[in-house]
Design a protein that fits this description.
The protein contains 27 helices and 41 strands. The strands form ten sheets. An eight-stranded mixed beta sheet has the order 1-10-9-8-7-2-3-4. The longest helix is centred in the N-terminal third of the chain and has 26 residues.
Length: 920
């Protein structure tokens, strides 16, 4: 936001602006943009006075002026021994300017020049004068922790930044602003506009000359003196230390000695997370050792508050990641370029040569060749335009020599430049003709760590009943750590500063990595959950990839709307809405589709801009942990995604109870969903979406395509071993085709091949875990005792593993347990209804507290539409079943929960709507 301190009546700006003859005195792209602005407004630029060339490189404002045929003067100095140089002053007077405009000027201009024009001279100064007079004003604004920054345009006098004020504008200082961010966000774009406005005000005779007040006046010394940039740790609190470092980022750089080595420090942030483990290093003047860790270097203020810096620089200007301090050989290894990459390198060389105006070799240093911070912005933009590649300013600062810069760009284009070397205690096994590696620890803040309690989960292969590995089990303390890291990432991390399109690119990158590892993911899913490999490849993993890509596309399409409201006459109003992320979200997922359920919820959550703490299923967490590895490789910032395997009663409950979690998404049983809803209400009234149990009815009429109905009915029940939330929990078959339908399904069930899920011919693997297998046996026993007819199956296979035969019950009456309760297994429950009794079968189908999915088979479209309108379920399949898609919303009614996964509606589960009304 910005405000104008002196506000003019609108009427004073309506008449034609008189053209003025202007001399531009200054340098840099900022001066060049002011030049362009003044020309667009109809003023005549009679001359540009700037600095001499640096080698073969002239200042950008000189280049712009020459293209227009404007006179350019390049004086090395205007004064000598305190006196104006006569010949310089005479050359200046020869251009006959009416006004001097000094947008950015590093030279001392004598008063003979300042006062010569009819309207004298105006100067841009990057502070709210009279505070922070002097050449390092913007640095001191940050160093002293000012909450407001801004700039002044004032009339030059013979004092130092003491002349009368013409206009000022201000902006808020954000907690992690640097000189660059303030300059790019506000000082540069608003300064250009304000300089043009100031000249127009002078031309119109409306420009004020307000004397600067003495109250609050300060003069701050130039930071060109090295001793002023040294950090004195004993004198600075954590916040003051952060302000001191960021106030000199990127120039001149706060410095200290680490282990006796001179270093400058950049990329400062307050650190509110738990102290990371890492290497301790001694810093001159600091009361205790600093800590080199994965995300940088932790420093202590004299109040013991922590500050993290991300980048260090040696005395010769070489920059490197603070996390690499003390390591040798941190420069990039030589890489072999492809023919296309060689063409890219030539393009980069042309860009550098254009900016530096000199020949470029492998050893050319960008900054030693005369480039400045604005040239960094130009380089980044030119690479974006000509190479179609997004760089950060940091990429330039970290690779200032051309050869290293080429490697940085090439690696980034290859997708290998996230720079995170992921090291963890991996599990390695050989299965499905491949070597699998995956984590078994908690994933917090982009690190794999052991739990604090020492407790372990046992991941059992349901095919063999053998132990795959032990997995760390998260405690309440671990949940708190993860939530606080997620909160820091949401409020103050790189994720918080990232624009939506960049978030989308990260998500697309993750989806690409998942596709590269899809065979590995599908194999882990088969081993950990018993999913048939071919199904895991297509659905468990395939639909997960589709989901991430679908929501990646939504990232930059989330928007609000404008709303017409009654105006507050005689004024008017504008009302609009904004869709904003909620904050830290908790997600708890089930074991039937371990990776897909994670993806359904997390992709929408992340695309909306939130951060997440996920508890995957206790009995099958391995693909979620493999996903965590890919998250780091994709380049997600720390804290955005945190994955905590653990017990639901401990870890899941802690997420639901945590006061900093603002949204919880849960898929699981209805009783647990009820408990979670209570916890969310009591803790902090967090937003909840629940996808719970189901007893989905499938109604098959006699006028159906019976072959299709049999095939789809079987899929509706036995898909994924019946471990499917929308499984057809009860089939209602019209009387006239009932016996034929039963006969056919029994014949088809006998053909189902049960066996090792890694065998490509297997279509039915083991149930997920032993406790679930025992419940299925009990479920069938109850059905037989209540009088239902067990037509087929109902028992375990006599072999190792949790194998259960596909089962068929008929004569299931409405009062029976198996007619009302979900089995969540491969058990087909068949009931018969009278011919033509549409309303009767609908009443029976709806007489359940569940309402997740439903289906109807009929050739009569009117009948199909009638059923779809009256069935009480969140999804209704007509002449198909299990046909879910990433673009179609998914979720239930009644005790099957509320809220949606998938589709555009899923985004609303992870967004909040803000209404803004403006009166003008």
């Amino acid at each position: 936001m910005w405000t104008t301190i002196w506000i003019l009546n609108r009427e004073t700006l309506l008449f034609q602006v008189a053209n003025m003859k202007i001399a531009i005195i200054g340098q840099s792209m900022f001066a060049g943009e002011v030049y362009k602005s003044l020309k667009r407004n109809g003023h005549e630029i009679v001359a540009v006075f700037t600095i001499p060339d640096k080698g073969n490189r002239e200042d950008s404002v000189a280049t712009i002026a020459k293209e227009d045929g404007v006179k350019v003067f390049k004086f090395p100095r205007w004064r000598q021994k305190g006196q104006a140089i006569p010949e310089v002053v005479e050359q200046y007077k020869s251009v006959d300017a009416e006004l001097n405009v000094l947008p950015f000027c590093s030279q001392y201009i004598p008063m003979e020049v300042i006062n010569h024009p009819k309207y004298q001279s105006i100067i841009y100064h990057p502070s709210l004068l009279p505070r922070h007079r002097g050449v390092s004003s913007i640095n001191w604004t940050l160093i002293q922790g000012d909450r407001k920054a801004g700039f002044s345009i004032f009339w030059a006098d013979d004092g130092l930044d003491t002349g009368p004020l013409l206009l000022q504008r201000e902006c808020e200082v954000y907690p992690n602003d640097t000189v660059d961010s303030l300059y790019n966000r506000f000082m540069y774009p608003e300064g250009i506009k304000a300089m043009a406005e100031a000249v127009d005000m002078i031309a119109n005779g409306t420009a004020p000359k307000e004397p600067q007040p003495e109250e609050g006046a300060t003069y701050d010394p130039s930071l060109s003196k090295k001793e002023l940039c040294q950090i004195h740790f004993d004198q600075l609190t954590g916040e003051q230390l952060h302000n001191f470092i960021r106030g000199m980022d990127k120039v001149p750089g706060a410095w200290t000695y680490i282990e006796g080595n001179f270093v400058r420090l950049y990329g400062s942030r307050m650190w509110t997370e738990p102290v990371s483990s890492g290497k301790q290093v001694l810093i001159e003047g600091m009361s205790q050792p600093a800590i080199v860790h994965q995300d940088g270097l932790l420093l202590y203020g004299n109040d013991q508050k922590l500050v993290n810096v991300q980048t260090l620089a040696t005395d010769d200007g070489r920059m490197f990641k603070a996390s690499k301090f003390g390591q040798t050989g941190d420069s990039k290894e030589d890489i072999e370029l492809t023919e296309e990459e060689k063409i890219l390198a030539q393009t980069l060389q042309t860009i550098w040569a254009g900016i530096l105006n000199t020949g470029v070799s492998e050893e050319t240093d960008f900054f030693k060749s005369g480039a400045g911070s604005m040239d960094v912005a130009r380089l980044v933009e030119e690479v974006k335009e000509k190479c179609k590649l997004e760089l950060d300013n940091e990429d330039v600062y970290m690779a200032t020599v051309f050869g290293e810069f080429v490697k940085t760009v090439v690696l980034k284009q290859r997708g290998e430049s996230s720079g995170t070397t992921l090291v963890y205690d991996e599990v390695k096994i050989f299965a499905n003709n491949m070597t699998l590696t995956f984590p078994h620890q908690l994933f917090i803040n982009n690190q794999f760590v052991d739990c604090t309690s020492g407790k372990k989960l046992r991941s059992i292969n349901p095919t063999t009943e053998e132990l795959i590995c032990e997995v760390e089990s998260a405690s309440v303390e671990d949940v708190d750590t993860a939530v606080r890291c997620a909160k820091a990432a949401f409020e103050d991390g790189e994720w918080a500063r990232m624009n939506s399109r960049d978030r989308g690119r990260l998500i697309f990158k993750l989806a690409d990595l998942m596709e590269e590892h899809k065979e590995e993911l599908a194999t882990i899913e088969a081993l950990d959950s018993g999913a048939v490999y071919t199904l895991a490849l297509k659905t468990h993993v395939g639909m997960s990839i589709d989901t991430w890509r679908y929501f990646a596309g939504w990232c930059d399409k989330i928007h609000g709307s404008t709303i017409p409201i009654n105006h507050a006459r005689p004024n008017r109003n504008l009302t609009f809405t904004k869709k904003e992320p909620i904050g830290v979200c908790g997600i708890v997922t089930p074991w039937n589709y371990p990776l897909m359920m994670v993806s359904w919820k997390m992709a929408a959550c992340i695309a909306a801009g939130n951060t997440v703490v996920l508890k995957p299923a206790q009995v099958s967490p391995l693909t979620a942990l493999k996903l965590a590895e890919l998250v780091v490789r994709a380049g997600f910032p720390p804290g955005v995604i945190n994955i905590l395997p653990g017990a639901g009663s401990l870890c899941g409950q802690a997420i639901a109870d945590h006061p900093l979690v603002r949204k919880l998404g849960f898929t699981g049983s209805t009783p647990i969903g009820m408990q979670i809803m209570k916890s969310c209400a009591v803790s902090n009234l967090k937003k909840v979406s629940l996808e719970l149990g189901g007893k989905s009815p499938l109604i098959i009429f006699s006028d159906c395509d019976l072959d299709r109905a049999v095939r789809q009915g079987m899929s509706g029940v036995f898909f994924n071993k019946g471990e499917n939330c929308i499984a057809a929990g009860r089939l209602f078959i019209e009387e006239s085709i009932h016996d034929e339908f039963v006969k056919r399904v029994v014949e088809e069930v006998k053909k189902i091949k049960i066996g090792d899920p890694l065998d490509r011919s297997t279509s039915h693997g083991p149930q997920n875990h032993k406790a679930h297998l025992d419940k299925l046996i009990e479920y069938c026993d109850i059905g037989v005792k209540e009088g239902a007819t067990l037509v087929y199956g109902g028992k375990c296979l006599q072999r190792p593993g949790y194998f259960f035969e596909p089962t068929i019950f008929t004569n299931a009456e409405d009062h029976m347990y198996i007619a009302k309760e979900e089995s969540f297994g491969p058990i087909m429950i068949i009931s018969m209804f009278k011919n033509g009794d549409i309303d009767g079968v609908l009443k029976r189908a709806n007489s359940t507290e569940f309402g997740l999915a439903s289906g109807v088979f009929t050739r009569d479209i009117s009948k199909a539409l009638y059923v779809s309108e009256r069935i009480e379920a969140g999804t209704c399949f007509v002449n198909c079943y299990n046909k879910t898609d990433v673009a179609a919303p998914f979720g239930g009614f009644k005790q099957s929960g509320f809220g949606k996964d998938l589709g555009e509606e899923a985004l609303n589960e992870y967004l909040k709507t803000k209404c803004v009304t403006i009166e003008y």
